[in-house]
């Protein structure tokens, strides 16, 4: 066995031990196919007020500009599909990824452990860990690394387990064996396009971020445009509709990460509880959650927007 194969196997075995669903590896190089796509998307203002999407255009497409001398992008998936959902079917809804503790911290810790392991086992390896907070095109790298294909709703899908997982990566200056992309299995299905409450999927594989419920409820800091009144399908933080209707998510299995389990009160809160939520309850229930990003005032705005 050559060293490349040995190191690749070591990294993938350790990733599994750390709880990652899967691990795929790509050569760190300029993303040629994605460049025109990203440019077109930005030119159409589909990023809405997410100005940060316009920053670091070159770094977003070239990992060697993020990590000097980088040779490999190690992509990782971490399942977050919950075993239980919110009980009150009429209550405002929260995206499943935000049920538990903020994933940024949990995944960052796992990535640091993986990088430490690589440095201990292999030696002088330099690199950085990324969890969707840096200019890295996570889904493009995961697809390039054979972890799934990008579906018509622009999320990564895997035949075995659907799409309810986080994507993260290590960009390192180590030569490894590279995986090949998998094939697209969306076929003629348009379930996600048909189901999107705000018609944000403007054509297959293109999502207008400025029309997405997740954008309105998390990213948008001002009032939600009134023309979308009645179209939110009761989502107060994020939206899972395009994933919920995807046939491949029949294969989703509950995660085994205790830190992703929701606060005991979260799932049992009724519609009335949400409408009367106080700042104290907000702080208690979302103490470590990604929901804190929208702040109490933002969540109240979203809940009020859902009212008749």
UniProtKB/TrEMBL annotation:
Task: Cite the annotated pathway.
Answer: tRNA modification; tRNA-queuosine biosynthesis
| Details of cofactor binding | Binds 2 [4Fe-4S] clusters per monomer.
| Residues the entry annotates as binding [4Fe-4S] cluster 1 | 186, 189, 192, 246
The terms under GO molecular function for this entry are:
epoxyqueuosine reductase activity
Question: Where is this chain primarily localised?
Answer: cytoplasm
Annotated active site residues, numbered on this chain, are 132 (proton donor)
Where, in this chain's numbering, is [4Fe-4S] cluster 2 bound?
Answer: 196, 212, 239, 242
Under catalytic activity, the entry for this protein gives: epoxyqueuosine(34) in tRNA + AH2 = queuosine(34) in tRNA + A + H2O
User: Per its database record, what is this protein's job?
Assistant: Catalyzes the conversion of epoxyqueuosine (oQ) to queuosine (Q), which is a hypermodified base found in the wobble positions of tRNA(Asp), tRNA(Asn), tRNA(His) and tRNA(Tyr).
- Report the protein name in the record: Epoxyqueuosine reductase
């Amino acid at each position: 066995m050559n060293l490349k194969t040995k190191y690749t196997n070591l990294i993938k075995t350790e990733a599994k031990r750390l709880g990652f669903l899967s691990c795929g590896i790509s050569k760190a190089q300029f993303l040629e196919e994605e460049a025109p796509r990203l440019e077109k998307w930005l030119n159409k203002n589909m990023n809405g007020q997410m100005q940060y999407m316009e920053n670091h255009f070159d770094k977003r497409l070239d990992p060697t500009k993020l990590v000097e001398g980088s040779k490999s992008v190690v992509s990782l998936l971490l399942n977050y599909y919950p075993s239980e959902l919110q009980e009150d079917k009429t209550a405002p809804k929260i995206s499943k990824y935000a049920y538990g503790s903020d994933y940024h911290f949990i995944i960052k810790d796992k990535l640091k452990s993986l990088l430490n392991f690589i440095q201990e086992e292999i030696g002088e390896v330099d690199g950085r860990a990324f969890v969707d907070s840096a200019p890295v095109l996570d889904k493009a790298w995961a697809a390039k690394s054979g972890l799934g294909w990008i579906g018509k709703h622009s999320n990564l899908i895997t035949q075995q387990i659907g799409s309810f997982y986080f994507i993260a990566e290590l960009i390192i200056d180590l030569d490894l064996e590279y995986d090949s992309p998998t094939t697209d299995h969306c076929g003629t299905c348009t379930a996600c396009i048909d189901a999107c409450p705000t018609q944000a999927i403007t054509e297959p594989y293109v999502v207008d971020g400025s029309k997405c419920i997740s954008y309105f409820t998390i990213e948008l800091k001002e009032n939600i445009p009134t023309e979308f009144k009645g179209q939110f399908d009761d989502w107060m933080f994020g939206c899972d509709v395009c994933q919920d209707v995807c046939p491949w998510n029949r294969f989703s299995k509950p995660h085994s990460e205790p830190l992703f389990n929701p606060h005991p009160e979260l799932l049992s809160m009724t519609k009335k509880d949400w409408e009367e939520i106080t700042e104290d309850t907000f702080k208690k229930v979302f103490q470590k959650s990604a929901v804190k990003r929208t702040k109490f005032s933002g969540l109240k705005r979203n809940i009020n927007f859902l009212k008749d």
